[in-house]
Amino acid sequence: MDLQEVSFPEAIARYRNNELDEIRAWASTAAPFTPPIQVEIGSNRGRFIQGLAQLYPERSLLGVEWQRKWARLSEQDLRDAGLDNARVLHADVNLALPMLFPDGALERVYVLFPDPWWKRRHAKRRLFTPEFLQLLAAKIAPGGHLVIKTDVEPYAEHIEQLTSTLAQFQATSPGDPGAPDDVEAWPRTTRERKIIRKGLPVWRFFLRRTEAPPTDNPGDAPLPEVFDKPDVTIDNPRQ
Prior knowledge:
Layout: H1 10-15, H2 17-29, E1 37-41, H3 47-55, E2 60-65, H4 68-80, E3 86-90, H5 93-100, E4 106-112, H6 130-139, E5 140-150, H7 153-164, E6 169-172, H8 190-197, E7 203-209
Parallel strand pairs: 1-2, 1-4, 2-3, 4-5
Antiparallel strand pairs: 5-7, 6-7
């Protein structure tokens, strides 16, 4: 598939060039994605994207997973299942999306149960920032959707504060005009099933991409340095 011309900051180009080269090498052997295209960020063991590939055989699907082990296993599971409309890439999504897709190329992006990175020293690793949402706003086509789920209430509050400041995303609920019309058909991750069985809450966001253009001023919603862990733990990875 063709790569986009991207000018990363000098620090990324210098110190993360190996990661960029991995993405380039992967793209050089990957077949082009045919629209409509959906992306799952943090595909973990790949159960959700495998379910999507079965549900949407007419769509091109990409999972972007930071853990190399899970990305390889997920990719192999897709091949073993004969699901040729989905791939999984090991990469940092903040590097991969700009390189792989032109603006407005994506129909839908899923971010399901992102790691909250509980400790203060790890807060900078959390996914949701104003800059990350502006990246998604650039890549999702107007009328497309950003779907987010979390079981961490402070993180949900932060996501709500952050997205409510952006004209590029409009909050919707299933059944609303402009909301995804196939929510009930989506597969559930292992984590979501366990949370539901325990009677614990899940916060869900269905955000429609508006016609507002991306901006260089993404707004701000300060992220708490520390999230308080819940008393009940779920004994499996984030998905």
